[in-house]
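Priority: low. Protein: RNA helicase. Input follows.
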Amino acid sequence: MDCPALTSSLYTPKIIWYQTDVAVILRVMLQDVKNYFLRVEADHLQFSTIINDKGYYISLYLFGSVIPEKTTHINMEREIKINLMKAFKWAGWLRLQASKQKIPHIALDPDHIYETNWTKDVFVYDAENGLAAFARRNNINIMPDVPSTDEEESEDEEMNPLFL
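Result:
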C-alpha cells in the first residue's frame, strides 16, 4: 500500500545552536513573537507560535538528555533563546537532533565554535628518547613513582571500602 507523503501547513524556523560543558543553547530565529508554546522533556523539545497568520512548529528529538526543570527561555524580540541544561555534564553532543539526517534549518552558531586541543602524537615508547622526552614535548608533568612502605599500604587498605 502506497501512502501519500505528509504535508504540513506549518513552517519550520531556523535554529542556531551551540553547547558548553553544561548546557545546550538554542536560538530560534523568529522576529516579533508575542506568544509561544515551549515544552521540554528529557529527550524531546516542542516549540510553536503564530506570527502574521503563519504557524511555526519545531519538534526535535535531542541527541542527549536534558533536565527539563532547569530549562530557561527568553524572548529577545529578534529570536527566542532557549537554554537546556545537560543531564550528563561535560559530555559533548555530536549534533542537536538524534537523527543522523542533515536538517537544513539547523545550524551551529559560528560565534561559539571552538576547537579542542587534542594531541595528534601517538605514544610509542622509544628507548632512545624515552618517556621524559615525550612528556617535555607535550607539556605533560609526570610524577615519579615513590615506593611506599608496607605500613602505608595497610593504612590505605583499612580506609578504602573497596578493600573491605
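Residues 150-159 form the longest helix (10 residues). The chain has a mean pLDDT of 82.
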